[in-house]
Design goal:
With 342 residues, the chain is of the alpha/beta class. It has 14 helices and twelve strands.
Length: 342
């Protein structure tokens, strides 16, 4: 039997389905959750919900939720903890309880569908494809095989997610993404795709990107920068995307303080660098970090730094020094490279 058939059979035995998005969900996660919900509806599960934690703050993500009318609910631990028989729990675009989600470690999971690197995935149904360019690609395969109705909203969501996750079919793309896009294109709403692609940008995002540009330091082919303290977590990946286009730069890493954590976002086209592994090594033991060869992120609790001082200016200086040193070590930059500043 195929993976799609296995998933259908498992869902057919359920009465309710709770789909957990990872923290601060992006279009790939949201579209995949929407598609899984449609599959569950097709096999007779009427009680379905999509839960998220963190924020939907990126202007593109907010537009995605609003324009596609995705019904999201804030994470409710009771829906995970107090499950009745027949109540199914699913993860999309992430895989492990407690890792980039608020589900307690060790919680039994029924369904995991993901394309990110992960170890020791435990669930009744697992489809983990690191080779896939997007989790939405996998869900598109299921929708097609199971003949789930693909209306304009679902097709637009999945197609936009694949385009966004692969940076317009330029990053981590495989033939499966092209096949999925060819199918979805026939059903998607072109006007809606255009609106999703060009959302308005907030002043906080522009300020953070401007700060990252000003604070950049180039070390060989690597660029490291920070935005200081910001309320806009999603400005970090946008700043990393922009700075990665600087001439001569193959790896860009941007970090900043958001509330009580340090957030890190990185991009790399350097064939010598697996940026996910580099971040994981840089912040091992102090936070969680990792990702793909070309795109990665991480989060470090601020508490380990806040113990040094209560003065915010001093705190920012300490964070900049320590985080930069860890990144230099994680990226294996030489002394000469570390001295080339801009």
């Amino acid at each position: 039997m195929s993976k799609a058939s296995d998933l259908r059979d498992l869902l057919a035995d359920g009465d309710t389905l709770t789909i957990i998005c990872h923290n601060n969900p992006d279009p790939d996660c949201l579209a995949s959750a929407l598609a899984l919900g449609r599959i569950a509806a097709a096999v007779g599960i009427d009680d379905r919900r999509i839960l998220y934690s963190g924020d939907v703050s990126h202007q593109q993500n907010r537009a995605f939720v609003n324009l596609l009318d995705i019904d999201l609910q804030p994470f409710d631990p009771t829906l995970v903890r107090d499950r009745e028989p027949g109540s199914l729990l699913a993860f999309v675009d992430h895989a492990v309880p407690g890792a980039n989600n608020r589900v307690p470690e060790g919680t039994p999971v029924d369904v995991v569908i993901d394309h990110h690197p992960a170890d020791e995935i435990e669930a009744r149904f697992v489809d983990h494809r690191e080779s896939a360019g997007a989790t939405a690609t996998i869900l598109t395969e299921y929708v097609r095989e199971l003949a789930v109705e693909t209306d304009a909203a679902l097709a637009t969501a999945l197609l936009f997610a694949i385009r966004r996750e692969t940076l317009g079919f330029l990053r981590g793309v495989t033939r499966a993404e092209y096949d999925a896009a060819g199918y979805l294109h026939e059903h998607a709403n072109d006007d809606l795709l255009a609106r999703l692609s060009t959302p308005s940008v907030s002043g906080a995002t522009l300020d953070a990107i401007a700060t990252a540009i000003q604070n950049r330091t180039v070390r060989g082919a690597a660029l490291i920068s920070h935005v200081g303290r910001t309320t806009d977590r999603d400005s970090l990946p946008q700043a990393a995307d922009y700075l990665a286009t600087l001439e001569g730069v193959e790896t860009a890493v941007v970090f900043g303080i958001v509330e009580a954590s340090i957030h890190v976002s990185a991009r790399s086209t350097d064939p010598r660098v697996h940026i996910g592994d580099a971040l994981a090594e840089a912040f091992a033991g102090v936070g969680s970090a990792g990702g793909h060869r070309e795109m990665a992120g991480g989060e470090v609790p601020l508490g380990i730094f806040a113990d040094y001082t209560t003065d915010d200016t001093q705190l920012l200086a300490i964070v900049e020094q320590i985080v930069t040193a860890r990144l230099v070590a994680g990226l294996n930059l030489t002394e000469g490279e570390a001295g080339d500043e801009e």
